[in-house]
Amino acid sequence: MRGFILSEENPPLAHIITLDVAEKERRRGLGTALLEKLESNLAARRVRTILLETATDNESAVAFWKRQRLS
């Protein structure tokens, strides 16, 4: 498996539970592609807000999420 994303939803709200990409697959756009597809699917189901939690000491995850919101 290269990666996966898991969420739960209760429109208009959703929560990203986890986004995992195999270490050898990182920095190739897979995490971004998974997130974009999830956001598109959730929007089609009338989700307007997505909550996210991540460990603040997970520097690579924090950097990933910051890039997603700034692009």
Shape: globular
Main β-sheet: number of strands, strand sense, barrel status?
A: 3 strands, mixed
Helix content: 25-40%
Give me the number of helical elements: 2
Count of β-strands: 3
Strand order of the main beta sheet, please? 1-2-3
Mean pLDDT: 93
Which strand-content bin applies to the residues?
A: 25-35%
Class from helix and strand fractions? alpha+beta
Radius of gyration: 12 Å
List the helices and strands in order: EEHEH
Q: What are the segments in which pLDDT stays under 50 over at least 5 consecutive residues?
A: none
Distance between the termini: 27 Å
Fold and architecture overview:
With 71 residues, this protein is α+β, with helices and mostly antiparallel strands. The chain is 38% helix and 30% strand. It is built from 2 helices and 3 strands. The protein has a 3-stranded mixed β-sheet, with helices on one face. Strand 2, helix 1 and strand 3 (49-52) form a beta-alpha-beta unit. The longest helix has 15 residues, at 30-44. It is globular. The model has no long low-confidence stretch (mean pLDDT 93).
Sum this structure up briefly.
This protein has 71 residues and is of the alpha+beta class. It is built from 2 helices and 3 strands, in the order E-E-H-E-H.
Protein traits:
71 residues; alpha+beta; 3-stranded mixed sheet; 2 helices; globular
Show the helix and strand layout.
Blueprint lengths: L2 E8 L2 E9 L8 H15 L4 E4 L6 H12 L1
Parallel strand pairs: 2-3
Antiparallel strand pairs: 1-2
